[in-house]
Amino acid sequence: MTPAELLAFLAVRGGREFAATACTHQGRGKQRRLHEVGVYRLTVRGDVVQACGPSGQTRQLAPATFLEVFGGYEFQRAEETGVLTDLGPLFG
Q: Superkingdom of this entry's organism (predicted)?
């Protein structure tokens, strides 16, 4: 899944946290393989993407910044963590 596809996936599911594995391609031709960088916990709330990396550091990013930072990655296995960060719809 590309970063743009992941962003669209998260936007539709706003407020729910997903864990996705960031990967990069290494090598060329037949030697090319996918290398896992780490698991990122991602949430979209409005116009902000919250990304928590493998180090545990959380950042608030604009969608354009998210695409700039993660543009070179491919994401695998976007799985819901069960964490809800936006309970407004439940009480609104």
A: Bacteria
**Confidence band for 14, pLDDT divided at 50, 70 and 90:** confident
What does the pLDDT look like over 32-89, one tens digit per residue? 888 899 999 999 988 899 999 999 999 999 999 999 999 999 999 899 988 877 654 5
What domain count does the chain have?
Answer: 1
Q: Write out the residue range of the structural domain in which residue 26 sits.
A: 3-82
* 35 bridge partner residues: 24
Query: Which residue reads 């669209």 in tokens?
Result: 8
Q: Which neighbouring-strand residues pair with 16?
A: 84
pLDDT value of residue 86: 61
Domain contains 73: yes
